[in-house]
Amino acid sequence: MSEADKADNLRINGERLWQSLMDMHKIGATEKGGNCRLALTDLDREGRDLFVRWCKEAGCTITVDKMGNIFARRPGRDDSLPPVMMGSHLDTQPTGGKFDGVYGVLAGLEVVRTLNDMNYETNAPIEVAVWTNEEGSRFAPAMVASGVFAGVFDLDYGLSRKDVDGRTMGEELQRIGYAGEAEVGGRPIRAFFEAHIEQGPILEAEEKVIGVVTHAQGQRWYEITLTGQEAHAGPTPMARRRDALVGAARVIEAVNRIGLENQPLACATVGMVQVHPNSRNVIPGRVFLTVDFRHPEDEVLSRMDAALRAEVEEISARGGLELQFEQIWYSPPIAFDAACVAAVRRAAEANGYPHRDIVSGAGHDACYISRVAPTGMVFVPCENGISHNEIENAKPEDLAAGCQVLLQAVLERADAD
Ligand code: GLV
Ligand code: MN
Ligand code: MN
Question: Are 185 and 243 within one domain?
Fold first, then answer.
């Protein structure tokens, strides 16, 4: 059978994909059916080890770079060509689901296994990537290691990101044995494809199986510290207080209002608040909080930024609070590569899967990789659009459909002249 005939017959194995997802889920499984596999913890190491073992069993060679990004390579007929790469992340949120990120990695592995089953030789090599610390939950910002790969951050910046206990990514990579030798980035990729659950409600509501991702919205992340004065909750009259938590409450309300004022598309979230000293009869002297702003249009994101700055200035002046304010991350809105987007759409059409174009609300490693390689994404629905939650769920048949689309889009790019 010719390679072209074989290509028409290649079908991914949905049951094998599901089984791999469920096996990976066991590492850091939570009581409510989700996962806690924070970046660079022992559980992250276990997940990485399992992925590496599976890839070696599938005949791949493994490279790990200095940010701990893992690349599993299946050679091509012309192995001098840049690889077509698939991938996503294995780290999760503290109360994360079992599909966010993991699906894109294991769908890539399933593509490799399917090619092996049919002895199919692609022209260009194929690689499956695991990007370190996509979530930005343990170490901010998100997508930091794909960002270093894409030249957005330098290596020292990436390795020096700290968790709340002051441990750096560099130390933790050494500790878990994933501080690799390879330089980060600087090598060509023919095309990159990331499969992911949608993490929102659109595909399910419209009964579509495939989201053809054309764009991703922009993000701005901030860290704010308000400092007032700790004092006794009994003898201190209300008029004399400099209560940092009251200031933080006003900031939270302002963030929410800025989001509502920029509908229909803006999102605005305070996701983390740390109160000092956090004692019930001490007026809070210091509060640290984070802000996450998102919008598909840069102009609107800039307006939201200006509004936030004005609000926090006014709130801290009114409360007699000292203000530290920093935008720690800006990820601009992006458009994915037209040819990769078209390859995903063609693959969905060829299989008769109901599909629609969609803008990603979440950040993905694909956003940064799109700066250095033609990039596309495949979305599949998730139950009630819920993600970053232990109850995150997706249907095996939808996950299989997304993987089939991934396979065909990858083949189109790997075998193109
Ligand atoms: C990544 O999970 C994000 O916050 O979009
Ligand atoms: Mn993700
Ligand atoms: Mn996520």
Answer: no
> How many structural domains comprise the chain?
2
Are 323 and 340 contained in the same domain? no
The ligand 1 atom at the shortest distance from the C-alpha of residue 101 is 2
Do 152 and 293 have their domain in common? no
For residue range 27-78, list pLDDT tens digits in order. 999 999 999 999 999 999 999 999 999 999 999 999 999 999 999 999 999 9
Which one of 266, 298, 330 terminates a domain? 330
- Give the number of the atom of ligand 1 that is nearest the alpha carbon of residue 100: 2
CATH of the domain at 97: 3.40.630.10
pTM of the model: 0.96
pLDDT tens for each residue of 69-115: 999 999 999 999 999 999 999 999 999 999 999 999 999 999 999 99
Counting atoms of ligand 1 from 1, which one is nearest the CA of 93? 2
Give residues whose Cβ lies within 5 Å of ion ligand 3: 100, 135
Burial class (CB in 10 A: 0-12, 13-18, 19+), 164: exposed
| Residue 363 in contact with ligand 1 by CB distance below 6 A | yes
Candidate of 146, 270, 330, 364 to mutate for ligand 1, largest count of ligand atoms within 8 Å of Cβ? 364
Which CATH number goes with the domain that contains 231? 3.30.70.360
Burial class (CB in 10 A: 0-12, 13-18, 19+), 118: middle
| Angstrom distances, CA of residue 316 to CA of 84, 119, 201, 279, 378 | 51, 65, 37, 22, 44
362 lines ligand 1 (CB under 6 A): yes
Residue 399 CA, ligand 1 centroid: distance in Å = 20
| Domain housing 311 | 220-330
